[in-house]
Design brief:
Pfam families: Sulfotransfer_1. The chain is of the alpha/beta class and about 290 residues long. Helices cover about 30% and strands about 20% of the residues. The protein has three domains: about 120 residues, no CATH class; about 110 residues, P-loop containing nucleotide triphosphate hydrolases (Rossmann fold, 3-Layer(aba) Sandwich); about 50 residues, no CATH class. Strand 6 and strand 7 form a beta hairpin.
């Protein structure tokens, strides 16, 4: 329950409704018979929390919405994930606005929201325990032996000359930690090197979001495997660009970098990459193939 989210929304509905106005509310909850309601894995309300959420309303009744199509509806409930499940149970409550002194309700919700937020923050601090480095990385065999998914929150994975460096610098804030320079350890199948750097170089703050950038990750099968198996919680940030402007920029970059040696003529680069092209070829502009 977020003072700026759920509570704020319910307070707004209360304000908008006329006296005795009716609110029909989908309420993903804990279900004794079926366990967790799969239609909304991030927001599950137990009865105690529901009583907080509907403060100012009287519950008139409840119906159980059973459907396998809940997540496919265009107007899906807020927060519903776009997956299909064998059975989804969506309790729907019929609520009536009770007559309250609105300023008092607003102030109550504001205070309550702050208390909830503080309690949840404390719970996060208590729940997170950083495991020892040796429990996730074996330095003798240079291999990953434990869960490293929590070490990497986001990654700028492509494409070269599409603004990845600018994006990396933009993401450096007081709420994030981004490793210096490009880190393409995953393209060489070196997950343990990346994990060790993230563990040792980033401050041990559980609320800090850790990130890297490697413009080649999307084009490399080792990286694909690592993100799927070891960093499956990582959010991938993908930068793309007009293919012709991309080619011009990349070619000119290589001309400057490669000097005094010369780059091949551009008409020879209309297909795949070959030796001497320094990674510049038209095939790499087919971003959709890699995506």
């Amino acid at each position: 329950i977020n003072p700026h989210g759920d509570l704020a929304a319910m307070t707004e509905y209360y304000t908008l409704l006329s006296p005795n106005g009716i609110l029909i509310l989908g309420t993903p909850q804990l279900d004794k018979e079926f366990g967790l309601v799969e239609s909304n894995r991030r927001r599950l309300y137990n009865p105690e929390r529901m009583s907080i959420l509907i403060k100012g309303f009287e519950k008139l009744g409840e119906v159980m919405y059973n459907s396998t199509e809940l997540a496919d509806r265009f107007q899906k409930p807020v927060g519903t994930v776009m997956f299909k499940y064998p059975m989804q149970r969506q309790p729907v409550w019929i609520l009536r606005k009770m007559i309250h002194e609105l300023p008092l309700l607003l102030e109550d919700n504001k205070i309550l929201g702050k208390e909830i937020q503080a309690n949840e923050q404390t719970s996060k601090d208590v729940l997170f325990t950083r495991p020892p480095l040796e429990s996730i990385i074996n330095k003798t065999t240079y291999s990953v032996t434990g869960d490293v998914s929590w070490l990497l929150d986001f990654s700028v994975v492509g494409f070269p000359k599409c603004g990845t460096t600018t994006m990396m610098e933009t993401l450096r804030t007081n709420e994030t930690f981004v490793l210096e320079k490009e880190r393409c350890d995953l393209t060489a199948n070196r997950s343990e090197m990346l994990a060790e750097s993230l563990y040792t170089e980033a401050p041990p703050d559980p609320h800090l979001k850790r990130g890297i950038t490697c413009p080649q990750d999307l084009e490399n099968h080792y990286s694909h495997w690592s993100y799927a198996k070891r960093y499956h919680k990582t959010k991938l940030i993908i930068m793309i660009r007009h293919p012709i402007k991309w080619f011009q920029s990349f070619y000119n970059f290589r001309v400057r970098e490669y000097y005094p040696r010369t780059m091949p003529e551009t008409h020879t680069m209309t297909k795949g990459c070959f030796k001497g092209m320094q990674g510049v070829c038209a095939d790499r502009a087919n971003f959709h193939d890699f995506l």
